[in-house]
């Protein structure tokens, strides 16, 4: 009753699910996600035909597959966004447990598809990457643990979540998949910071990351090769970074024209990790800036809505999902312009890949569910700043 008096969203008894969902959902955020998927399909038309020809498929084989993956992802996003936070948490716990087991079994049953990293299960007709589905589940489970630890006589949730984080990071590093390991550690660190972590502890963790990176550089040829390539003042024009750099330079402001780009014929990962290079070459800086703005709108709007949320679990989980989504996009584009070492990380909703796009759909669906407008959702009421106080 207090929230109804002081301006929270009114409760409409017996309101059907769809009208209630439409009234409370972040429509601009959802629209931006749909636009990102549309951009991904557009770029897929440009980037995937060379790969299809190389593998003996029809020109639009991978575009058609991506369309199927995308519609499944959008369906999963819409369905998840209609769920209550409690139901989302239950879904996340089940998904996390299954993905964690799958990740642990990768060394025994997984494959590297000749890329030097054991990250996938081969299903014959497709592949499955457990780490993509693990990320959203881990964020929600960790947020649940951290929120529970703040309750009176609550469990040591922060310690438990840290133990989970370390175990996941170690398994990812052993694949090796240092990019996903850093992303998981970043997501946990953001939530831990919001939950009230002391600054000294965060600085100590940053130091541990530097030490771990030094050890990895000394003992992993895969890791050392990527770091050396990044630090080298000269870029080998025959490497993926070299091709991507040339493509971005050629694209300029308006691009060379639709279908006129050449990087897709040279880059083996033009349709996945380096798809932004295809966008920059054919459509120029204009499209790249549009893509950046779409990601920024999703993240910023989500964070602004979460700032008004007073449920600690929703606030932590939503912030972790939003930040991880935005940082993954930053890492992918940062690698393409040589601001970061090569990571092997997809651009959410834009890059080709079934596991990536479907897992992104589930993650964003969870984020949309957490950022829906709800009664008792204003943190200003809790702090005594509501109207009439």
Automatic annotation (TrEMBL):
Transmembrane feature ranges: 28-47, 67-84, 91-110, 159-178, 190-217, 283-304, 316-337, 349-370
GO annotation (BP), single: peptidoglycan biosynthetic process
Keyword tags: Cell cycle, Cell division, Cell membrane, Cell shape, Cell wall biogenesis/degradation, Glycosyltransferase, Membrane, Peptidoglycan synthesis, Transferase, Transmembrane, Transmembrane helix
Protein's pathway: Cell wall biogenesis; peptidoglycan biosynthesis
InterPro entries for the chain: FtsW, FtsW/RodA
UniProt keyword Magnesium, yes or no: no
Enzymatic class: transferase
One annotated GO molecular function: peptidoglycan glycosyltransferase activity
Catalysed reaction, written as an equation: [GlcNAc-(1->4)-Mur2Ac(oyl-L-Ala-gamma-D-Glu-L-Lys-D-Ala-D-Ala)](n)-di-trans,octa-cis-undecaprenyl diphosphate + beta-D-GlcNAc-(1->4)-Mur2Ac(oyl-L-Ala-gamma-D-Glu-L-Lys-D-Ala-D-Ala)-di-trans,octa-cis-undecaprenyl diphosphate = [GlcNAc-(1->4)-Mur2Ac(oyl-L-Ala-gamma-D-Glu-L-Lys-D-Ala-D-Ala)](n+1)-di-trans,octa-cis-undecaprenyl diphosphate + di-trans,octa-cis-undecaprenyl diphosphate + H(+)
Topology in the lipid bilayer: Multi-pass membrane protein
Record protein name field: Probable peptidoglycan glycosyltransferase FtsW
Source species: Sulfitobacter marinus
